[in-house]
Amino acid sequence: MDTNKSYKKTLWGSALAFLLATSCCWIPGLIVLLGGATSLAGFNSGLAKFSGLFFALGAGLLLYGLYLYKQRKQSM
Fold first, then answer.
1. Cβ count near 9 (within 10 Å)
2. Per-residue confidence (pLDDT) for residue 26, from 0 to 100
């Protein structure tokens, strides 16, 4: 597997996990902006329960991506 693609995937994965983990902060603003849709409020409430998991997943993927990036730099 190409390490260049691997670390890019883990960086994208960590960015997605970060967005999901912080959704409890930015989704209410989005709800207000969109007119207070009730379904978005329920979705936000469900995601808030898993924010710790998303933070851990994001941090793990970010560290793994940085590790692969460092390995790639050292092999050049």
1. 15
2. 75
Give the burial class of 61: count Cβ atoms within 10 A of its Cβ; 0-12 exposed, 13-18 middle, 19 or more buried. Answer: buried
* Residue given tokens 């990036």 in the structure block: 69
| Higher-pLDDT residue of 40, 9 | 9
For 17-26, what is the mean pLDDT? Answer: 78
Any residues with CB less than 8 A from the CB of 30 and at least 6 apart, and which?
40
The pTM assigned to this predicted structure is 0.47
- Decide: residue 65, CB within 10 A, 0-12 exposed, 13-18 middle, 19+ buried: buried
Tokens representing 21 are: 């983990």
